[in-house]
Specification:
With 240 residues, this protein is an alpha+beta fold. The chain is 58% helix and 7% strand.
Length: 240
C-alpha cells in the first residue's frame, strides 16, 4: 500500500541554480518539477558538487537513512511509495511514447546542451563561473580545466563529442522539431493535464532556452511557437 506518512524529513539534493532557474541541471530540475507536480513534501538542499550522491551525480534524495540517486529511479520509487502518479490516466501507447520522449531527451538532446555549454569557448567562459560558482576561487581555477577535460571525455565516449559543432547542432535541431511535432496544438504532451513527460521536456528545454548562451538548438526552440508557449505555460503553473 502507498505510504501516507508525510516526508517532511526527505531531503532532495540539487546542483545550484542561475539565470532565474532553480538549478542548471535538467535532471535536478526534472525531479524538482515532478515534486511540485505531485505535492510530495520534501526539503530541498543545494550542493556545490554532485560527488556526495550515491552515483556521484545529482540529484539524489536521502530518506529513512538511505541515499537514492538518478532522477528516473527516484521518481519511480516515490511514485510507488506514495501512490501519486501524474501518469495514471495514460494509455499503454502513451506510456510507451513517454519512454521514447524521455530517451530522446536524456540520451540525445541533453548531450547537445552539454556540448554547447562545455565545448563552445564563449559559452564555457560564462558557464564555468556558474557550474563551479559554489567553490572558492582557488578551487575553481584548479578544477575548471580538469572538469572540462572530464566532460569532453564523456562526450567522446557517448559519441556526441565525435561530431563537429555543426553536426551537433543538426542533431539538436531534429530533436526539437520532433518534440514540436509531438506536442502539436495540445497544451500538454498528452492532452489536457500535465504528466511526468511535461516535467522531463520542460526541464531540458528551459535549460537550453533560458540561459544567456549561444546555441543553434536554442534558436530552433525559438522557431517553434508551440514549444515556447509550452515553456511559458509550465512556468506559470509550477514556477510562478
Amino acid at each position: 500500500m502507498p505510504d501516507s506518512t508525510p516526508l517532511s524529513t526527505m531531503k532532495v539534493f540539487h546542483l545550484p541554480g542561475a539565470w532565474g532557474l532553480p538549478t542548471v541541471s535538467p535532471f535536478c530540475l526534472k525531479l524538482d518539477a515532478w515534486l511540485r507536480m505531485t505535492g510530495i513534501q520534501h526539503e530541498s538542499r543545494t550542493v556545490a558538487t554532485p560527488f556526495a550522491g550515491p552515483k556521484s551525480k545529482a540529484p539524489w534524495i536521502q530518506i529513512d537513512g538511505t541515499k537514492l540517486g538518478d532522477s528516473t529511479f527516484i521518481i519511480a520509487y516515490l511514485t510507488e511509495r506514495f501512490g501519486i502518479d501524474p501518469d495514471e490516466e495514460l494509455t499503454a501507447e502513451q506510456r510507451g511514447m513517454a519512454v521514447a520522449i524521455q530517451r530522446l531527451i536524456d540520451e540525445n538532446l541533453y548531450w547537445t546542451m552539454v556540448h554547447d555549454r562545455w565545448v563552445h569557448e564563449g559559452n564555457w567562459r560564462t558557464f564555468r563561473d556558474v557550474v563551479l560558482g559554489g567553490l572558492p576561487l582557488p578551487q575553481r581555477r584548479l578544477l575548471g580545466p580538469i572538469a572540462r577535460r572530464g566532460v569532453k571525455k564523456q562526450l567522446s565516449g557517448h559519441g556526441m563529442g565525435c561530431h563537429s559543432a555543426e553536426e551537433v547542432a543538426m542533431i539538436g535541431q531534429r530533436d526539437v522539431a520532433a518534440l514540436a511535432a509531438i506536442l502539436g496544438p495540445k497544451p500538454w504532451f498528452f492532452g489536457g493535464q500535465p504528466t511526468s513527460t511535461d516535467a522531463v521536456v520542460y526541464a531540458q528545454l528551459i535549460n537550453i532556452w533560458h540561459p544567456p548562451l549561444e546555441s543553434e538548438v536554442k534558436r530552433a526552440i525559438g522557431e517553434q511557437p508551440n514549444l515556447v508557449g509550452f515553456l511559458d505555460r509550465f512556468k506559470a503553473r509550477f514556477y510562478p
